[in-house]
Amino acid sequence: MLRDCKTILVVAALTVCAGGQLGPARTSAEEPAPAKPRFAGPQERGFLLPNGWTITPAGEQVATTDLPLNIIPMADNRHVLVATNGFNRHELSLIDFSTKQVVAREAMDQSWFGLALNAAQDRVWWSGGGADRIYAYRLLEGKLEPATGPELPSPEGKAENQFRSGILLDPTGTRLYSLNIDAGTLSTIDLSLGAGGQVVKTAPVAGRPYDVVLARNGSRLYVSDWAGKSVVAVDPTELRVLAKIGVGEHPNQLVLHPKDDRLFVACASSNTVHVIDTRRGIVTETIYTTLFPQAPEGSTPDALAIAPDGETLFVANADNNCVAVVDIDEPGESQIMGFIPTGWYPTSVAVTPDGQHLLVGVGKGNQTKANPLYQENEKRPEPPAGSTQRRRTLPYPYIGTTLSGSLSIVPMPSEEQLRAYTEEVYKNCPYSDKLLTVAPHSAKSP
After folding, report:
1. Per-residue pLDDT tens for 50-59?
2. How far, in Å, CA of 393 to CA of 385, rounded?
3. How far is Cα 94 from Cα 59, in angstroms, rounded to an integer?
4. CB 54 within 8 A of CB 428
5. Is the pTM of this model over 0.70?
6. What DSSP assignment string belongs to 36-55?
7. Cα 177 from Cα 183, distance rounded (Å)
């Protein structure tokens, strides 16, 4: 549906090149914006944030807790698993997006990025973050039921050096891979051993490993390294590092093309998505996702999804409150087609198996809230049982408790709708490249 709209966005498209950045023609979007309202809050069009951005999220919204880092659409094109990992209660939710209802929910005090679903779609594994656990669930008849998780070895040294991040279930469904972002290790878990599986091998792979994917032919694991500006190729059996491929700053989520050997890497602190040819082990393309050609670091691309037909890449630009839509049909010739407005700080993105809906996890919700002082007789909320959170003893709600999250359900846009969405994204943005030189300052500044 989106393939033929690559030429519609002359005003907003960023040309993508291998090894360099080209920008769009100057547009009316760079003209001085009209005066903005003084106070954050609901406006005639959308919600004005304290930082001057306006949010006008596309589609329909289902409320969640904050920071949904993972979305897995189900094969029925109706249900979706969403895992939230923010300051408030961490939840694994099964959402029926046809009715906009949460039909099942499990909560944990600690979790992080890392969610896997088996081929039969009746077993789920969820990374336990600082709890140094992997939670397991049965998914039966629309219900989530806790199951026995893998048996992990006791951590060596300090417990705070153990933090589970990305996980991956191999195609056979018998082997689970788990990253430890603090220890810098990758573990292989044999799910046929013990009640829930056991670790059979652990090896160091990176400084701060975040996400892991398996090559289409099964010959390599690829691990993004937050700290190393690289993607690490690893032997899936021996867990031996085979190569390190340099990419942009702060590489996080990875996604493999469904039909060829391209690996896409979101580099949050470089405003880019790097494209790796996994056959040759080199970067062949750099996609810039900024709204303006001279924009400094700050778009924060942090999540990726590819349409089932392999023609379109969706990139969550967290700090631009939008999703970039990229034509990737021709290797080496990727083009930004437009942008879709989201809520405040999108942190995950997925496409339904039928390609009809884009699903966006919004990290901070669709509005801001104040954190006023508690009234004299007002009861302050207690931390959840077993929680390590202590900020709730403050005389006011900690700002993290005022945040929410949401799942945005967006029908796949037509060319005309994408054009309208793109115009809206630019209207929501208080920045333009002119501000780099005309912003007033009283002293010399970088």
Report:
1. 999 999 999 9
2. 15
3. 19
4. yes
5. yes
6. PPSS-EE-SSSEE-TTS-EE
7. 15
